[in-house]
Amino acid sequence: MKLSTKKNGFLGADQTVSYEASYQKAKAVIIPFGMENHVSYGEGTRRGPQAIINASHQINENDEQTFKAIYRCGIATLTQPQVPKKSTTALNLLAKITQQVLKDGKFPVILGGEHALTPAVLWAVCKKYSDISVLHFDAHADLRSQYEGSIYSHASALRRVLETCPVQRLVQVGIRSVSEVGDELGFMRREKKRIKTFWGWQDPPPQRVIKAISTKNVYITFDVDAFDSSLMPATGTPEPGGLQWWPTLEILKAVFAAKNVVGVDLVELAPIPRLHAPDFLAARLVYKMIGYKFSGTRIKAI
Ligand SMILES: [Mn+2]
């Protein structure tokens, strides 16, 4: 599959320096995919990828933990394709794109869009890696058998992953919204060997999260509503009692150090016009994760 990159994508350029790499030279490839086929409450996730890209142009390139200029690892941004309206067609397209990026030996970073896109990424990831776990940050368990008539709803995203991919373990962090009617609790109980859920009130130390991940390879899916709604109001279904910034980065840093993270997605940002802090948070989180992957996780003090 032929992939095309976009100028002025993630990080962009200022007058003197371009922070973007060519596709050939990039280690990390940003895949914007503003899929929004199911909306339960607040709409706007289709605008998420561009809001993250716009905010990323304001990121100072030097990381304040490692004091490294993360962009030097090479980051390219793909042109967003027209996202098909039919869910299965959209998912197959995203799976194909991700498969190509993985085949080219690059680290895929998918920008959503709604959480419904995650199964497609895992279809591609599981073609390359047989020994894989999923680390899932979210306010919601996303384990419903179906939701509002669709099995490809965002509320069923991780259930579809577990049903359609040979994922060994699902480790959930930040969960504080779970449905009984949607058979989430029942499914969790039946699959308790495969699913480990850390509830929002538990605030697990990084080592407990790492211990729960049974494989060397990990895929991270990050629904921005995992964060407390005060930090992240720009999402369709915000919940109080969520994650905070530095403790979350501590978990991510520890996981990137201990495991082989093979790809990430960041989903469910629904930008609010004139409230740009959430867009900046999302852009910074993407930059941090790429940094942990390629610039290391050892924190320096200067
Ligand atoms: Mn969610």
TrEMBL record:
Alphabetized UniProt keyword annotations: Hydrolase, Manganese, Metal-binding
InterPro entries: Agmatinase-rel, Ureohydrolase, Ureohydrolase_dom_sf
Coiled-coil segments on the chain, per record: none
Binding site for Mn(2+): 115, 138, 140, 142, 223, 225
Keyword Nucleotide-binding: no
Biological process terms in GO annotation: putrescine biosynthetic process from arginine, via agmatine
Cofactor remark from the record: Binds 2 manganese ions per subunit.
Cited CDD domains: Agmatinase-like_2
Signal peptide, first to last residue: none
This protein's record includes keyword Manganese: yes
Pfam families, alphabetized: Arginase (PF00491)
Cofactor entry: Mn(2+)
GO molecular function: agmatinase activity; metal ion binding
Family according to the record: Belongs to the arginase family. Agmatinase subfamily.
Full protein name: Agmatinase
Organism: Candidatus Doudnabacteria bacterium RIFCSPHIGHO2_01_FULL_50_11
